[in-house]
């Protein structure tokens, strides 16, 4: 039995229970029918990938199958996109060229999803693309800047190739989602789909660490795609889980998003659902811990903190959360394994020569050396920043210079101008969500909108910190462009709903016009 077949059997063995329970949980959200469909598509896609003899057969069946199943339903297309995005490695293979062109560009599972599910939404006529014009402008400006930056040291063929990939992975997800999602029910379905896709990978991540086995390496080889990830990374004698994401930080990153998403589905009135809710929180937390990646740990903590602070009785909830954290630390410190996890918490380990301390030291040095390089070309950065003596001093034992900070990478390549534009694409939606909080809190009929507003704020906060500790590899950028598109769509929809509520109240409070009585006189 080949490795990919053994891995496929093991994957289905470990996810069957959580998927069944998630289906039960979906009943409490009135999404059981949709969830059944997602489960079927996830299972079929996974089996297809593991059994296909090469990538092209897999991609052809996936493209046709998804278009047939999703049909003309735009929300179904977005839900399937998020269900399947983390389900398989973001490995790629070159599309063969012709004539003087060796290849067109590299394509992978994530590109097929975008081309089959989201491109039709872009082509569909709608006036929704004009919403959030400032964010749209900044995103297009950032794309234009990257295009110009590519021209500095690349051939025209390379510029067109890289620009095409950016259109597929950046512009299409953002605009397809931001122009399509409009109702509260749409947001609920999409966020539930996001949660499902991430929950499955969190389950697999826990199993990988316990089993010390990366389950998706075999399928990468059988499909004949190039991954560049999937190596066995350890920390404190434990395997760092990565699931289908390829790198532990990438798995931790989506677990941060999952923990933010699940907070809106807590309903204490439904007791059976509450038990399942906490079980899924535990699975997401377990998947996050299994990555042994401290950056996502802090990102998740900040996301939860942002959600609590944006709600009522924040101080009381923070005290309870702090007490629960202290109890957990005391329990963990009582065992050698638990102490190993505690030593991984940033700035907690007292051993200055530990791996935890050394990685923090590396990140500090990376920021210092990068700032020296940025100051030489502060406006638009430089194309050869990796060749500078400062960056060369950061070369590690593996022979690579690992820029484990998305913001530094942006600043080095596009300067402070590019960094400012990049940050604005995150901060504008975040500021608008924050500005909308008091208005939503003032109307009890908009409580569901308020909760989703808080969730999206928490998600953006968690993502922004996590990419501070990670480079934008694999599906990381696809997720944050898609999430920002979802946030922009929410801002537009919530504003529309607020205006409706205001108009309804004004109509209710408007006094009735009394017509003067007509006096009839008889002669």
- SS field, number of helical segments: 19
In the predicted model, the low-confidence regions spanning at least 5 consecutive residues are 518-523
Strand order of the largest sheet: 1-2
Strand content: under 5%
Principal-axis shape equals: globular
Give the number of DSSP strands. Answer: 4
The overall average pLDDT, rounded, is: 89
Kindly describe this structure.
With 523 residues, the protein is mostly helical. It is 69% helix and 3% strand. The strands form 2 sheets. It has a two-stranded antiparallel sheet. The model is unreliable at 518-523 (pLDDT under 50).
List keywords for this structure.
523 residues; mainly alpha; two-stranded antiparallel ribbon; 4 strands; globular; disordered C terminus
Précis, in short:
By secondary structure, the chain is mainly α. It is built from 19 helices and four strands. It has helices at 3-28, 32-51, 55-70, 74-84, 109-123, 133-150, 156-180, 184-211, 217-223, 248-262, 271-290, 294-309, 314-333, 336-344, 355-376, 389-392, 406-441, 447-466, 476-509, and strands at 92-96, 103-108, 234-235, 238-239.
């Amino acid at each position: 039995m080949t490795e990919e077949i053994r891995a496929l059997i093991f994957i289905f063995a470990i996810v069957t229970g959580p998927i069944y329970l998630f289906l039960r949980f979906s009943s409490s959200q009135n999404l059981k029918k949709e969830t059944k469909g997602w489960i079927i598509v996830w299972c079929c896609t996974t089996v297809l990938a593991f059994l296909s003899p090469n990538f092209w057969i897999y991609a052809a069946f996936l493209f046709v199958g998804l278009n047939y199943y999703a049909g003309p339903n735009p929300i179904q297309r977005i839900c399937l996109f998020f269900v399947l995005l983390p389900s398989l490695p973001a490995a790629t293979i070159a599309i063969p060229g012709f004539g003087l062109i060796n290849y067109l560009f590299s394509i992978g599972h994530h590109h097929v999803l975008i081309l089959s599910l989201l491109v039709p939404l872009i082509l569909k006529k709608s006036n929704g693309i004009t919403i959030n014009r400032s964010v749209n402008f900044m995103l297009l400006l950032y794309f234009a800047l990257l295009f110009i930056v590519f021209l500095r040291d690349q051939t025209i063929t390379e510029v067109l190739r890289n620009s095409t990939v950016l259109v597929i992975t950046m512009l299409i997800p953002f605009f397809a989602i931001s122009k399509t999602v409009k109702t509260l029910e749409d947001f609920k379905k999409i966020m539930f789909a996001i949660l499902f896709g991430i929950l499955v990978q969190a389950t697999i991540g826990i199993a990988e660490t316990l089993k010390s086995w990366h389950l998706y390496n075999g399928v990468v080889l059988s499909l004949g795609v190039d991954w560049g990830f999937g190596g066995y990374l350890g920390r404190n004698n434990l395997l760092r889980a990565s699931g289908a994401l390829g790198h532990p930080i990438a798995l931790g990153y989506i677990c941060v998003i999952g923990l933010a998403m699940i907070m809106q589905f807590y309903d204490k009135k439904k007791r059976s659902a509450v038990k399942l809710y906490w079980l899924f929180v535990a699975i997401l937390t377990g998947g996050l811990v299994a990555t042994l990646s401290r950056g996502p740990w802090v990102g998740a903590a900040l996301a939860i903190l942002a959600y609590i602070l944006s709600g009522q009785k924040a101080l009381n909830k923070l005290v309870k959360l702090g007490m629960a954290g202290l109890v957990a630390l005391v329990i963990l410190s009582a065992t050698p394994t638990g102490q190993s996890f505690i030593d991984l918490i940033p700035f907690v380990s007292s051993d200055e020569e530990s791996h935890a301390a050394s990685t923090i030291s590396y990140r500090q040095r990376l920021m210092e050396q990068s700032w020296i390089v940025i100051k030489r070309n502060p406006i638009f950065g430089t194309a050869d920043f990796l060749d500078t003596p400062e960056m060369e001093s950061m070369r590690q034992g593996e022979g690579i210079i690992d820029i484990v900070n998305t913001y530094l990478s942006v600043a080095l390549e596009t300067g402070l101008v590019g960094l400012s534009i990049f940050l604005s694409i995150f901060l504008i939606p975040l500021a608008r969500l924050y500005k909308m909080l008091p208005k939503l809190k003032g109307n009890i009929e908009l409580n569901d909108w308020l909760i989703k507003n808080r969730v999206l704020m928490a998600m953006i906060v968690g993502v922004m910190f996590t990419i501070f500790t990670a480079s934008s590899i694999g599906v990381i950028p696809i997720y944050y462009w898609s999430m920002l598109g979802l946030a922009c769509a929410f801002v537009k929809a919530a504003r529309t709903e607020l205006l409706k509520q205001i108009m309804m109240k004004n109509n209710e409070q408007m006094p009735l016009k009394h017509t003067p009585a007509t006096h009839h006189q008889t002669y």
